Amino acid sequence: MTQKTYKLGRLSTVLFITFISVCTSLLITSIVFYFCQDMAISKIGMFAAIVTPLVVAPFPSWYLMGLLMKVSALEKEMRLLASLDSLTGLLNRRAFFNDAEVLLHYAVREQISVSVVGLDLDKFKTINDTYGHSAGDLALKHFTAALKGSCRQSDLIGRLGGEEFALFLPNTSVEEAYTLTQRLHKTLSQSSIKVQDTAIQYTVSIGLLSLVPTRADTIETLLQHVDSSLYQAKNSGRNRTVVYGS
């Protein structure tokens, strides 16, 4: 009902309500005067039946429609805020999992390749401990901008928690996904954040999995495989991408 109201618009909805009010008033008046044959009274009654709703209906309906649309807009904003990470503006863990499952089901049905990427900032605790949590927040925002610059609009980007991020890349081969991660490594190597007149560089370790999914696959199981590659990247020197199964 609310969606239909938005499509009609506030003015169109008010006019529609007024029209329905006039028709209803005329119908009721006609029924009443059907049993009353006094033409003079009938003409006055019919005139009143038309004029009264025309005068009365628009004002309360305009006000009520304004309230309804404000409430709907607030609900939409609250739903959006509930799905986003407050610091980075990326999808939060719950929203990322929900949206990724939808894309995963589509990939299963169409039998197309997808890539799942896990990312974890290297030695992030050192940044927090040395320069403070504000520096850590700055690094997370900087990394978010680097991610957005490396990804397509169709790619899902989520912050799963802390310095842990994930990507779901629909219709993406392992070669394409690996190229994306190398572009991200290069971007970070050529940039830095500035804290208290000090330029700070950081790196990221990445795990990558590409496949044509089956019905047995879920985003949880795929991320578990990605995590094993991510840990391998961490243990083999950090600042690198490890492809699952390679």
TrEMBL record:
Keywords, comma-separated and alphabetical: Membrane, Transmembrane, Transmembrane helix
* Pfam families in the record: GGDEF
Q: Which reaction does it catalyse?
A: 2 GTP = 3',3'-c-di-GMP + 2 diphosphate
Taxonomically, the superkingdom here is: Bacteria
The reply on keyword Transmembrane helix is yes
Q: Which residues form the GGDEF domain?
A: 112-246
**Which CDD domains does the entry mention?**
GGDEF
Q: Which SUPFAM superfamilies is this protein grouped with?
A: Nucleotide cyclase (SSF55073)
Provide the E.C. number(s) assigned to this enzyme.
Answer: 2.7.7.65
Listed InterPro entries: Diguanylate_Cyclase (IPR050469), GGDEF_dom (IPR000160), Nucleotide_cyclase (IPR029787), Rev_trsase/Diguanyl_cyclase (IPR043128)
Q: Which residues cross the membrane?
A: 12-35, 47-69
Q: Which NCBIfam families match?
A: GGDEF
PANTHER family this protein is in? DIGUANYLATE CYCLASE DGCM-RELATED, REGULATORY COMPONENTS OF SENSORY TRANSDUCTION SYSTEM
What is the protein name stated in its UniProt record?
Answer: diguanylate cyclase
